[in-house]
Amino acid sequence: MKLKRTGYNQTVVSFNNGAEVFFSYDTPVAGYSDKLGYIRTNTYYSKTTSRHINKYEQSRYQGLDAHFTSVNQEVIDNLASNIPTNISSIEHNHLGDNLYIRGDS
């Protein structure tokens, strides 16, 4: 598992199986899995979080035919449920660009 800060209050957690979860602040709001493809929440949080999601989408479109499907927040929460709970945004926002996490599921 790899944790990468992509911007201020923006983080992507990538799993070894290719899945990933994008966080705006502490909230998982988008991601990817082989089963679901690219997904984004259909829940509105704030103008800033909406900008974060749009930036994440644009970063995935580069050279790809990526299509994002809007889904209920619970779907993204389930995708994020394999992330260790002992990692907080305060920790990863001060760790630099990458953090590799042992014990990947």
- Taken from the alpha-carbon principal axes, the silhouette is globular
Largest sheet report: 7 strands, mixed
Helix content: 25-40%
Q: Report the end-to-end length measured between terminal Cα atoms.
A: 8 Å
Strand residue percentage: 25-35%
Number of strands: 7
Describe this structure in words.
This protein has 105 residues and is α+β, with helices and mostly antiparallel strands. Helix content is 27%, strand content 33%. It has 3 helices and 7 strands. It has a 7-stranded mixed sheet. The longest helix has 15 residues, at 47-61.
Short description:
The protein is α+β, with helices and mostly antiparallel strands. 27% of the residues lie in helices and 33% in strands.
Notable features of this structure?
single chain, about 100 residues, alpha+beta, seven-stranded mixed beta sheet, 3 helices, 7 strands, about 35% strand
Strands, helices and their partners?
Blueprint: E1 2-7, E2 10-14, E3 20-24, E4 27-33, E5 37-41, H1 47-61, E6 68-71, H2 73-80, H3 89-93, E7 98-100
Parallel strand pairs: 5-6
Antiparallel strand pairs: 1-2, 1-7, 2-3, 3-4, 4-5
